[in-house]
Amino acid sequence: MIQNLIRKINDLLLETLAGEIPNVAQHIKANQIQPPAGVTPPLVLLIPGNFAIATQPGEGTSTAPRSEEVRQKIAVNDALPQGPYVLGQTPLSGSARCKVFSDENSVTEKQIWLQENRDFTINYATRSCSFLYDLTGADSILFIYSVVSISTLRNFAQDLFIDVHGNNAAEVEKFASLVAGNILAYHDSLLLAGNQDNAYKTEYQAGGVITRHHLTQIQLIEGQPDPIAIPKTRLKFTVSGHLKSSREITEGFGLIEKIHSPGKVSTQAVDIVVQVE
Q: Any idea what DSSP says for residue 59?
């Protein structure tokens, strides 16, 4: 559930502890229980633990298909700015809009709304979008569209253990404190990366089923000193979040575009037959 978060924490520690540990990449390792051969302390090893799934009131499986809004941001391909760009899911026909960003995150940032069939077209069979509007020089595209799916939502909690090895008790305490301090100080940034950064967020797809992991909290639970052999402390964190599973339904649904009513104003009650397209 938290492999990408572990990678992000690993990258964070490589950056923040570089001034404290020479050749830092040899001393901080993810998904490794035993110290690497030939590498002397200090060592920081990130190890995923057990996870548990919990059902809260209001959670469960929805047996009825429902529409939901999807927002997907894609960087403009400078080599092929007009696309095609592949969408993550199949939009309901006619539901797609997009916003183009230029000079993003600057005081001169520009945002332009584009419309389907005027500024871009979508091949619904391949979920690919090509642009008629000139995207040369643009930075990114935000797609907003509706999909129909059957979804489940579950809370999860997974342990994260970080073993800190040192040459002595003082060194263990120093790096255990720095590791814990970095994770706590960068708590919100870590969650933001795990939920929104394409390099670290977790989303899997297969056979029309999509699973997404949304992180909500990282808690420091305890530290367990281990003075046997090389001094060591094991830090225990618990990562909480939501696991959402969705199955796309692409046939038999669309947006209501017109409602025809043959009824007219009358002083007496009349039956009205409504036709929906």
A: -
How, if at all, do strands 43-54 and 28-30 pair? parallel
Residues 6+ apart with CB under 8 A from 119: 98, 131, 132, 133
Name the percent of the chain lying above pLDDT 70. Answer: 85
Q: At what angle do helices 169-185 and 187-196 cross, to 10 degrees?
A: 60
Q: What DSSP string runs through 183-199? A: HHHTHHHHHHHHHH-TT
In sequence order, what are the beta bridge partners of 97? 115, 144
pLDDT band at residue 133 under the 50/70/90 scheme? very high
The answer to whether 3 and 202 are in contact (CB under 8 A) is: yes
Q: Is 257 exposed, middle or buried (0-12, 13-18, 19+ CB in 10 A)?
A: exposed
Contact 253, 148 (CB under 8 A): yes
Q: What is the pLDDT of residue 92?
A: 83
Got the DSSP string for 145-175? EEEEEEEEEEEEEEEEEEEEE-SSHHHHHHH
Q: What confidence tier does 55 reach under pLDDT thresholds 50, 70, 90?
A: low
What tokens were used for 89? 């899911």
- 59-98 pLDDT, tens digit each: 555 566 777 788 888 899 998 999 899 988 888 888 888 9
Angle between helices 169-185 and 3-16 (to 10 degrees): 120
